[in-house]
Specification:
318 residues; alpha/beta; 9-stranded mixed β-sheet; 3-stranded parallel β-sheet; 12 helices; 14 strands; 35% helix
């Protein structure tokens, strides 16, 4: 909030003590009821950061009050709830905080392939620590809030941000809960998400590889971006892997942690600032969100649900 083009007027929490403590930090007013806050304050937008159990109700309440809405991920427990939010949104700006879709590293991968129309993206490989519930149908039926939705939306939103809408999903679950999730995109790109079975959060087990016709991009732990451009190559004739010139080989970007400046801080490297800044820009320009929109969100939720019920079978995404 200190870096965004906003003035925080009010804070609402069912825990009034917490609301007042937060409000004091920003010189805002505190409320324990959202409807009371909307009646009493002249607001443009609201940031909703609660459980996905409450996101749909609070978002629709804000839309009905004529407010623009930013909400944390995941936006709901079921895709149908996102459909209802789309119906209630009208002309308001709505955005969901899928931070990995907004990471500078993700945006760099998108930029690289958009600049190479003659070398399009062909396939993707994601490595992310995740297991999938054994009884996915029960998860959906009972509305359980499991880690497959809580954190699985991170790699899914990143892959969809890069490659676009998904046509079909197939998940093969291993004996211990990990496995593989195969994503078939409508543009022909194929995505392979390796569900790594690890418990140690300290392990560097997050990695994304994007393969094109003439180059590929790697994102390691959300920070280090490598752009591999290859070298002029003739089988059996090359005598050096370092040909003359600077237009070949790999380019690497990573935070320069020697400096404690903004571009090296987690709020910025993880995409949290960029997702909220983009929301503010859309509100100020009176234009609908494209990145992180409710339509994008619906794609993520449909893929999430398809993965839960796949059980090794190919599930089409309508």
């Amino acid at each position: 909030m200190n870096f965004l083009p906003v003035t925080l007027r009010a804070v609402c929490d069912t825990n009034r003590v917490l609301a007042e403590a937060t409000a004091r930090q920003y010189g805002a007013r505190a409320y324990a009821d959202a409807a009371d806050m909307y009646r009493s304050e002249c607001l443009d937008a609201v940031f909703i950061c609660v459980s996905p159990l409450h996101h749909p109700q609070l978002a629709c309440q804000a839309f009905d009050a004529g407010l623009h809405v930013w909400m944390e991920k995941p936006p709901a427990r079921r895709a149908a709830e996102v459909v209802e939010m789309i119906r209630r949104r009208k002309d308001r700006v709505a955005l969901v905080g899928f931070k990995k879709a907004f990471m500078p590293a993700t945006q760099k991968a998108i930029e690289i392939f958009s600049r190479q129309p003659d070398a399009p993206l062909r396939s993707m490989l994601a490595e992310y620590p995740m297991t999938i519930p054994e009884d996915g149908e029960a998860v959906l039926r009972e509305g359980q809030y499991v880690n497959w939705l809580r954190n699985g939306c991170h790699p899914l939103s990143l892959l969809i941000a890069v490659a676009g809408p998904v046509a079909a999903v197939t998940v093969h679950r291993g004996r211990h809960g990990g496995g593989v999730c195969v994503l078939e995109f409508r543009n022909g790109v194929i995505g392979n998400w390796h569900l790594a079975e690890v418990e140690n959060r300290g392990q560097p087990v997050e990695r994304y590889s994007f393969f094109g016709d003439k180059s590929h991009v790697v994102i390691e732990n959300g920070l280090r971006v490598s752009f591999h451009r290859g070298i002029p190559f003739q089988y059996g004739r090359n005598t050096t892997y370092l040909p003359e010139g600077l237009d070949y080989g790999a380019v690497v970007w990573e935070p320069q942690n020697r400096e404690g400046t903004l571009e090296n801080k987690a709020l910025f490297t993880q995409g949290i600032y960029d997702e909220m800044r983009y929301f503010c820009e859309c509100v100020l320009a009176s234009r609908p969100a494209q990145k992180g929109s409710l339509e994008f969100t619906l794609q993520v939720m449909k893929v999430n649900e398809a993965g839960l019920i796949s059980g090794g079978h190919r599930i089409d995404i309508p």
